[in-house]
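Lab notebook, design round three. We kept the backbone fixed and only want residue identities now. Task for the bench partner: fill in a sequence for the structure below.
Input structure tokens:
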């Protein structure tokens, strides 16, 4: 196994989907990972300052991936991450494969065309 260890940060709402996507990626790309589910429902409401008060980074982590909608100065996290890389991931966790250099899923959903009619 590669010595890369990604530590993903998320909220409770995205936890299960993130676990599924990351497990598939880790198997395909041969890396280890941990997921830190912080005590907030929606990850987009996190700020780096708030994350710094809640984050538990395992010693084996080489890179920390924050939710893509999380915005702000990463300075509050700099003392916690030591020399590890910390960055914002994609805004949608379904884009993690592309973030890791995988081929994006097809955008063509078939030859059928569906029209929705509402009153």
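Proposed sequence:
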């Amino acid at each position: 196994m590669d010595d890369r260890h990604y530590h993903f940060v998320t909220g409770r709402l995205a936890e299960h989907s993130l676990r599924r996507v990351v497990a598939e990626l880790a198997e395909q790309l041969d890396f280890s990972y941990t997921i830190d589910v912080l005590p907030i429902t929606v990850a987009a409401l996190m700020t780096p300052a708030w994350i710094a008060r809640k984050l538990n980074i395992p010693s084996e982590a080489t890179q920390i991936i924050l939710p893509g909608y999380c915005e702000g100065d990463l300075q509050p996290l700099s003392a916690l991450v030591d020399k590890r890389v910390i960055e914002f991931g994609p805004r949608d966790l379904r884009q993690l494969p592309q973030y890791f250099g995988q081929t994006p899923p097809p955008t063509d959903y078939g030859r059928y065309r569906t029209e929705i009619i509402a009153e």
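Keep this in mind before ordering anything: The two ends are 56 Å apart (CA to CA).
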